């Protein structure tokens, strides 16, 4: 467990049969009310091969991106940046009704996607349109800014679009960019995993 000042806190061993992490897993986790009672499971799938499994938790399991490394983005992916959680979405093609009437709405110009700010289980706050082939996000600079979130760096991450798809890159932020894993993902020794309020470093 990594403390807010960067020092190491409690250490939790992972047995061969794996370990379940959640609010019911002992004193180290009982006061983290952003953890589900059974939040995640870590188990070895082979020698030196660890798998992280999200046990249908409410708030998810996030893995920190390695700075300057390119990661593929897929529609529906959830990104944690600072204290914000956003969902990456593509905009549907513009359409008309069956009789040919255009549908009214704000001009989308060259927008092809959006980041939707998640503020509750089924609730979306602001939506930030994505235009062009490179979108920068930060606290002070960029196309999308979160000026009141002190955990977001001045320039934090970059989202790109090209013929091969969509990518996200942490551009060297202080507190990291985190991508929510699916139901089950392989993880590496040295990875940082965010669950609930706390950050953990995996070592095996």
* Major sheet characteristics: 8 strands, antiparallel
Content-based structural category: mainly beta
Count of separate DSSP helical elements: 0
Number of strands: 17
Helix content: under 10%
What series of H and E elements makes up the topology? EEEEEEEEEEEEEEEEE
Q: Quote the distance from N terminus to C terminus.
A: 14 Å
Shape designation: elongated
**Rg calc:** 19 Å
Question: Would you kindly provide a brief summary of this structure?
Answer:
Helices cover 0% and strands 43% of the residues. The chain is an all-beta fold and 204 residues long. The strands form 3 sheets. It has an 8-stranded antiparallel beta sheet with strand order 9-8-7-6-14-4-16-17, with no helix packed on it.
Written overview of the protein:
It is a single chain. The chain is mainly β. The protein is 0% helix and 43% strand. The protein has strands spanning 19-21, 40-46, 49-54, 61-64, 71-73, 78-81, 84-90, 111-120, 123-131, 134-138, 144-145, 157-162, 165-170, 177-180, 184-187, 192-195, 198-201. It has an 8-stranded antiparallel beta sheet with strand order 9-8-7-6-14-4-16-17, with no helix packed on it. Strands 5-13-12-10-11 form a 5-stranded mixed beta sheet, with no helix packed on it. Strands 1-2-3-15 form a 4-stranded antiparallel beta sheet, with no helix packed on it. The model has no long low-confidence stretch (mean pLDDT 93).
